[in-house]
Write a structure and sequence with these properties.
Length: 52
């Protein structure tokens, strides 16, 4: 198994472990990530609107 594949599997295992052991914290992190993406998309849309 090459190094990249091993690191990917270890990362996946850590994420699954984190979700199983701390579901509330995991859900908060996902909500925060989506909120950040939503804010970035909104700011970009506002920027494009201002160009017109």
């Amino acid at each position: 198994m090459n190094g990249k594949r091993l690191i990917a599997w270890l990362l996946l295992a850590f994420i699954v472990f984190f979700i199983v052991t701390q579901p509330d914290t995991s859900a908060d992190m996902v909500r925060s990530a989506f909120r950040g993406l939503s804010n970035a998309a909104s700011a970009f849309a506002n920027f494009v609107t201002q160009l017109v």
